[in-house]
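Per reviewer request, we include the raw input and output of the structure prediction for the construct analysed in the revised manuscript.
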Amino acid sequence: MRFRRPAGMLPLPVPQQGGSIESLNSFLNLASRDDFVLIVAWLLATLRSGGPYPLLAISGEQGSAKTVLSKLLKALIDPNAAPVRSLSREERELMIAAKNGYLLAFDNLSGLPVWLSDALYRLASGGSFAVRQLYSDDEEVLFEAARPILLNGIEEVISRPDLGDRAIFLTLAPIDEVQRLPESELWREFEIARPRILGALLDAAVHGLRAMGRVHLDRLPRMADFALWAAACEPALWPAGTFARAYGANRRTAIEGMIDADPVAACVREIMAVRSSWTGSAAELWRADAYRSSHDLLSERTGWPKNPRALAGRLRRAQTFLRALGIDIAFSREGRAGSRIIRIRATQENIVSTVSSVCDQPAPRPAGDVCDDDSRSDLVGRYPMGPACVTTADDADGADANAGLHFG
């Protein structure tokens, strides 16, 4: 079957030549030029015939036009009578939605359950789901799809590093009442401009198809296929390298936000701000009063793991983002009993930049503390919490291997 027309599908406009992608910017409430570049790159990524696709995560307070932005982007690529929807209740519903639509837009989210975060990760990169066929005992129905995904909510709903590593994060500013337009007027103007905007997107995609085999990036980020495609298309729209700068800055902001939102990653960053290495067991790290001393009563709310094993699992998830900040984590077994050892090491560039940014003066090290690589030290009560921040390092040795940026 060459074509399907699921319920709710609406026609795309006939694209027109001579349009400019800049006309799209007048309909979007974006905070910066970089945000517009990322929106266009994401739209171009949706025109690819297969995944993996980056997720677009939009956040902002009430009145920042999150839903309108989601509907506008959906109307450009996959018009539908129900442009945005609520969260699916199970993975089977999510795969059915993917089978009957191309761009999945979820509106006004307050959070993502763990199972749904994992399911969205698989769907963005290409996933499959099998269920027993009705009225049969040994037959299955297979759902397989790779789809572009858009999420919006007041808060940043993506909290798991694996999904965040595939996402583009945008934060919208509130719209002043003087600048606010009736939605009916906005849509009337958009319908007039939509054929030319789609034509400009398709022209950029044609340029990307021609140049794809000749594009080379010095460093490939996590979403390498997306980055190569955006780099191939962008000369039709703006100077080469514009996307790489915008995407790199967005990844840096995402990394810092993910670490701030994860108490385990934040704890490791605080510990390594005043030392070059740490070696010990997950139980020793779990007892670190550096983070828990003032949060014992709030441990469930702050998300601190309930046992050392859970902490080790959280460390594995945070490894990628912490490595971008110059903090390497390695797991090994030592001794005849095969005890599990965690080694945390900071590069020299990370030590210099982070210690200088924790406070005006670094926290004093307790007497008798040992910081050798082979040392095993209990962290209970040793390092006070402080308002940590991250600064940019100039040394290429501290560069993020994914985004091509330098992190302290």
